[in-house]
Amino acid sequence: MKSKICLFAVKDGKISVVEKDGEKFRRMRKNGEDSWELERGFWKWFENRLELQDDEVCEFVFVYDRLEEWFCESKFWRKECVGKAWNEASVMTALETVKFEFREIRFHGSRDENGEEANLQPGEFWTTLRVEKLEGSEPAAQPKVVLKEVERKDETALQKYFRLQMEAERRKR
User: Fold this and answer.
1) Quick one: which H or E segment has residue 58?
2) Burial label, 104 (beta-carbon count in 10 A; 0-12, 13-18, 19+)
3) Burial class (CB in 10 A: 0-12, 13-18, 19+), 100
4) pLDDT (tens digit, 9 = 90+) per residue, 11-49?
5) Is 142 exposed, middle or buried (0-12, 13-18, 19+ CB in 10 A)?
6) DSSP characters for 8-27?
7) pLDDT tens digits for 108-155?
């Protein structure tokens, strides 16, 4: 069974879409642009662009600051990322593909230290990727930060690859 794997990054009313094919990431373009205004016709355009087959499964993850209600009413919207195509490292790589700048990314519905639903601060975004529950921890103690951008200016592509592999291995343990 085939899968269509995409990340949707929405920031300040603009959307960028990244397709994942194995370990390769490809920016989806609309009229030659990597990022464009998010308008009501988006899902129709996306469905035509994707050319889904009947036997294909969609594994989508969303990173966003704010979404319009109509966007979430689509058959493609998922409140929580399902499937095994996405993890923290692959989301980071996809966001780097479209040069998506952020300070912090949280799972939607995450809680603060007092168990209250967290509010976004400038530079923070929601995601539909869920972090694994820490063994023996209560919901209020769950990590509120899913991903955090770290400044690594002198890192080569090869160093980055091995760092991401090591981070993924560490998360599995």
Assistant:
1) strand 57-64
2) middle
3) buried
4) 999 999 999 888 889 999 999 998 999 999 999 999 888
5) middle
6) EEEETTEEEEEEEETTEEEE
7) 666 666 666 667 777 778 888 875 543 444 444 333 444 444 445 566
Q: What is the amino acid identity at position 34?
A: D
pTM greater than 0.90: no
3-state helix, strand, coil in the chain (%, to 5): 25, 25, 50
Q: Angle at the Cα of 13 (from 119 to 148), degrees rounded to 5? A: 45
Dist. CA 57–CA 2, nearest whole Å: 6
Say what the pLDDT of residue 143 is: 39
Closest CA to 13 of 60, 68, 63: 68
CA 94/CA 14 separation, integer angstroms:
16
- Three-class DSSP category at 69: helix
CB proximity list for 88: less than 8 A, separation 6 or greater: 129, 131, 146, 147, 167, 168, 171
Q: Are 71 and 78 in contact (CB under 8 A)?
A: no
CB burial string 12-50: b at 16+ within 10 A, e below: eeebbbbbbeeeebeebebeeeebbebeeebeeebeeeb
